[in-house]
Amino acid sequence: MSELLNDVAAHQAVFVGGKGGVGKTSVASSIALARAQPGSRVLVVSTDPAHNLGHLWEQAVGDDVTPLWSGGDGPGLVDGVEIDPARTVGRHLAAVAETMTRLLPDRLHAAAREHLESARDAPGTHEAAVLERVAETLETGLDRYDLVVFDTAPSGHTLHLLAMPDRMTGWTEKLLANRDRSERFGVAYGALGGTKDTSDRDAELRRMLLRRQARFSLMRDTLQDSSRTGFLLVTVAEPMPIAESREVAAQLATLGIPLIGVVANRLSPASLLPARAAREEALLADLDLGARLTRIPLIDELVGLPALERIAGALA
Ligand SMILES: Nc1ncnc2c1ncn2[C@@H]1O[C@H](COP(=O)(O)OP(=O)(O)OP(=O)(O)O)[C@@H](O)[C@H]1O
Ligand SMILES: [Mg+2]
Question: Is 3-86+126-315 in CATH node 3.40.228.10?
Answer without folding.
Answer: no
